[in-house]
Amino acid sequence: MARGPAKRLFSLYSCKNSKLYMVRNFLCSRLFHHSHPSESPFYPLNAPQVPQRTQLPPSQFTQFTKFGIFPDFHRHWFCSVSENEKSLLDSTESIQLEDESDKVDEEERLCEPETQNIGQEEERLIFSHVATRDPVEIYKELKDTVHCKKESRSDWDTLTEVLRCFSKSGWASNQALAVYIGASFFPFAAHKFGSFFLKRCNNDLVKYLVSLGPGDEADKFLFPIFVEFCMEEFPDEIKRFRKMVESADMTKPHTWFPFARAMKRKIVYHCGPTNSGKTYNALQRFMEAKKGVYCSPLRLLAMEVFDKVNALGVYCSLLTGQERKDFPFSNHVACTVEMVSTDELYDVAVIDEIQMMADPCRGYAWTRALLGLKADEIHLCGDPSVLNVVRQICLDTGDELVEQHYERFKPLVVEAKTLLGDLKNVRSGDCIVAFARREIFEVKLAIEKFTNHRCCVIYGALPPETRRQQASLFNNQDNEFDVLIASDAVGMGLNLNIRRIVFYNLSKYNGDKMVPVPASQVKQIAGRAGRRGSRYPDGLTTTLHLDDLDYLIECLKKPFDDVKKVGLFPFFEQVELFAGQLPDMKFPKLLEQFGENCRLDGSYFLCQHLHIRKIANMLERTQGLSLEDRFNFCFAPVNIRDPKAMYHLLRFASSYAQKLPVNIAMGMPKCAARNDSELLDLETRHQVLSMYLWLSNHFEEERFPYVKKAETMATDIAELLGESLIKANWKPESRNARKPKPQEKEEGYQRPMSLIKLHEK
Ligand SMILES: Nc1ncnc2c1ncn2[C@@H]1O[C@H](COP(=O)(O)OP(=O)(O)OP(=O)(O)O)[C@@H](O)[C@H]1O
Ligand SMILES: [Mg+2]
């Protein structure tokens, strides 16, 4: 009996005037005759990889509908729908509707149903010998078949349904990638195969497939035959796709650093929660070493280590994207992780906050440092979330791994009372954490208006110098600034005299909507309270509102995540190689294509490149930039949501492209900010100067002749920002007027009215 869908399909096929009829005819028509697949230039490479139907349990494939995984390859693929393939498909679709030659005459293949009524199971047993046949033999036989026996209508229906299911099979599509048949080309190839098969299959094959019916088993039986067919029919498509995929190969990243691989490195993982002495211990080894490098997640922290180590008598230089301070005769350097050299040889390297390897945007910098550093001893400091990945990486690299586990010096205590929604309950030594700039100023205004406390502020858009100035103002006991209001920027780096961390809220805007702050971040921030050696060694944490308390406790109780993948990003040379396969393609599109086609091992993901693509798009029409220039400009530190800063970047790039000296072309404000828009303006100006300095360090320096001027201006603006923050008592504004305010969101966290708003009411 024909099954339901098969019946429907058959009725469509029977309609001779329909487009489908013509499509079917075309699909059945284009049969080419080639030599044996072993003569294909790809055969020796591909053939052994062809998955055998017996070795692939379906469960292994169900989860990989988007990213194909081949157990036989141990690779993850980002499925490709390349432009070339799309256009190929488009063109073939149009041919399909026109070409009616060489059709499979379905009536010719049909015969009266056999009267004998054999059950499906019995049929399967009778024809089970087909399953054990060599797919190459089956393919040969199909190719050589001219006439085949008639089938009953119901068998025909089932067979067409089996082949239709095969052409829709996600599993088969994923597997086909292993033989370089792209995801977008697969449906076309499968249709062609279907028509070939329908026309030539013999009775035993038909009976066996009918006994299997549409689904996994039939797909696995058909797949190796399909591969044989494709090798002969589509050698050019296979070759082209293979070249493209190979040029975007990011598998085995440990092999990118042959010199580091030639060394026998010792990796020490200082693993523990915040405030447990990880960085302290790693820095001890760093200072003892003859030659050492410290890799920091932030400029601020690199500066702190630079100062601290020099103060202890170990000469140390500083290297960040924006500045280079060479200390005479120094053998030590404190740098930001993006700037670390994988060419230099070190005795000891420290990579701080190693869990940042899993950061969706910046993770690649930590991965590169871990894989590429040429150091006898590498100290990793971080929470346990990436420990398993690091273990795997050490197996790949052959490095020795030593794990040192730490506990917090003093347990963190949760204050169950909370601030009861009233900012009047703040006390000296409190740090109020809010996740939006606007809220930070709202809280500052409220506290300074209704209490006797004065507040310092720390948030991401402030230059590191200003953040340090605010931190020392807060740490210093000889002034009235005893409360700190901070964003998540307080989570890393600064040693602060914080008695209690109070979460103003526990949700934040992620660029799209309000989301709960991840538990790992809550832990990290809460852990800043009560540092060893500070005025308040016993740390407390709580929330402003009682209804947030449960979430805080839940986050603190939660074990650290076990991260499965860490970030990677291609070097310029890899992008250049890929660009060679797609000449004339614009850079933003090229990046997109790279993202879609690159291959990665199971422990890695490709870092998000939205920021990079935004800049690439902006610079698309700037003439005179080489591919490398474009690539480098894309990493400039700019807030892509700040149109003024983006405008200056475009201006810098245009001057550079025209081979003109790049001007700062930006005035200097005369005084500290008197309102929030002036403060925002200062923040932007500092960002532009910081960008100028960064560019001067990443491009030919002579093209940026105003570095000294930019440095002076940046220092002056950081000071003005500091002054402005001390005076700041205004209502905050939003940098981007269109950015939705948390209160406007229907879903997610609803912030109860702050003190200041209650007062205004
Ligand atoms: N053995 C020690 N002797 C003196 N002070 C120490 C010692 N260990 C740690 N400290 C101090 O304790 C504080 C916290 O240590 P450290 O910064 O190393 O912690 P951490 O585990 O790296 O925390 P974080 O998660 O914040 O990076 C620092 O001020 C550090 O100087
Ligand atoms: Mg640390």
UniProtKB/TrEMBL annotation:
Recorded superkingdom: Eukaryota
Every Helicase C-terminal domain range: 418-571
Pfam families: DExH18_N, DEXQc_Suv3, Helicase_C, SUV3_C, Suv3_C_1
Entry cofactors: Mg(2+); Mn(2+)
Listed SUPFAM superfamilies: P-loop containing nucleoside triphosphate hydrolases (SSF52540)
Protein's cellular compartments: Mitochondrion matrix, Mitochondrion nucleoid
Record keywords: ATP-binding, Helicase, Hydrolase, Mitochondrion, Mitochondrion nucleoid, Nucleotide-binding, Transit peptide
Protein name, entry field: RNA helicase
Leader sequence segment: none
Classification via InterPro entries: DExH18_N, DEXQc_SUV3, Helicase_ATP-bd, Helicase_C-like, P-loop_NTPase, RNA-DNA_Helicase, SUV3_C, Suv3_C_1
Domain Helicase ATP-binding, residue spans: 259-375
UniProt source species: Rehmannia glutinosa
